[in-house]
Amino acid sequence: xxxxxxxxxxxxxxxxxxxxxxxxxxxxxxxxxxxxxxxxxxxxxxxxxxxxxxxxxxxxxxxxxxxxxxxxxxxxxxxxxxxxxxxxxxxxxxxxxxxxxxxxxxxxxxxxxxxxxxx
Amino acid sequence: xxxxxxxxxxxxxxxxxxxxxxxxxxxxxxxxxxxxxxxxxxxxxxxxxxxxxxxxxxxxxxxxxxxxxxxxxxxxxxxxxxxxxxxxxxxxxxxxxxxxxxxxxxxxx
Lengths: 119, 109
Fold this sequence. Notes:
The complex is a heterodimer.
Chain A: E1 3-7, E2 10-12, E3 18-25, E4 34-39, E5 45-51, E6 58-60, E7 68-73, E8 78-83, E9 92-98, E10 108-109, E11 113-117
Parallel strand pairs in A: 2-11
Antiparallel strand pairs in A: 1-3, 3-8, 4-5, 4-9, 5-6, 7-8, 9-10, 9-11
Chain B: E1 9-12, E2 18-23, E3 33-37, E4 44-47, E5 61-66, E6 69-74, E7 83-90, E8 98-100, E9 104-108
Parallel strand pairs in B: 1-9
Antiparallel strand pairs in B: 2-6, 3-4, 3-7, 5-6, 7-8, 7-9
């Protein structure tokens, strides 16, 4: 059974940093691209970042470019999101997700971790 | 990137049929996917490749596509179907990976 478990969320002041983790199990982690999707309170889903299976390709939504860094450790079956220079508008539940082999959709999601940016 | 537009809300009585549309020019060439999200929970995939249903998803959920619009149909709506529904498509540009629709709140009266 595919399982994705996020951790690392919390309350941080504007300008601060936070590192999210996602522990994966139940599948060959190194074979799949992995993704972060966020949802601001009362708002819709927003794709944030993706990383290829070997970590060689990264992609970010424009609003986080230069501030967030996605990475992975295939040996530890873990995905990370380093979030720097956090803004109030980054407040959201952050979901880790695994794609289908076609990379067209997200059949597997973690339960999410809440990041609150507030002074 | 591109946009996918959904109606903000749909209300339906139990046993009736709910239809949720998702519109966007990219849908003429790309598959659409649908997710159900209940409060405090992660999204769950309910339709893939426009009309396919993953195992374990009730038959009352179905999808269809026509031109630049895809439709999620819930036949014989049940109280447990009250949730937010999002369409999604892939983005093959270098600007994003996935595009989500604006979301539709389904209320069962």
